[in-house]
Specification:
Blueprint: E1 6-10, E2 17-21, E3 24-29, E4 48-57, E5 64-72, H1 76-89, E6 93-102, E7 105-114, E8 117-125, E9 131-139
Antiparallel strand pairs: 1-2, 2-3, 3-4, 4-5, 5-9, 6-7, 7-8, 8-9
Length: 142
């Protein structure tokens, strides 16, 4: 019937929020990489900052996803090369790469599978040179 109890925790100082129900949980925040982010998935080379993160899990904490967005230094080309190598070094099989350049903006998407997870990493560089790396990590059906 869609009704039930939910526990909501909001940190007004950080802006972090968590919602827990009997059907699962959702954590939204910024500032830190979630503790459950897989060790084998590479983070950007050099300095970076977390601009947003979201994690959803089922009641057992098993099935779900992590979405993470980071601002990074360097270039999209260099970060994409680092992330591709790091993904295979982390024990993931690279399942695809897509590179697109349009109006001075470079976008590289890298996908992989391993350790029971599907990983998609998107690296974007805008005309001002800001590099953004977005991750989506989900449970794999392998």
């Amino acid at each position: 019937d869609g009704s039930g109890d939910a526990e909501v925790d909001l940190d007004v100082d950080s802006g972090d929020m968590s919602i827990d129900t009997d059907e699962g949980s959702l954590d939204i925040g910024s500032g830190e990489v979630p503790e459950s982010f897989p060790d084998g998935v590479p983070l950007p080379e050099g300095d970076y900052s977390v601009t947003s993160s979201m994690e959803a899990t089922d009641p057992d904490g098993a099935e779900g996803y992590i979405q993470l967005t980071l601002a990074a230094e360097g270039t999209a080309d260099a970060q994409a090369e680092h992330l591709q190598q790091g993904l295979t070094d982390g024990g993931y099989e690279k399942t695809g790469t897509n590179r697109m350049e349009s109006n001075g903006q470079l976008s590289v998407t890298i996908s992989g599978r391993g350790h029971g997870q599907d990983v998609v990493m998107s690296v974007l560089e805008d005309p001002e040179g800001q590099v953004v790396v977005n991750y989506v990590v989900t449970a794999s059906d392998e």
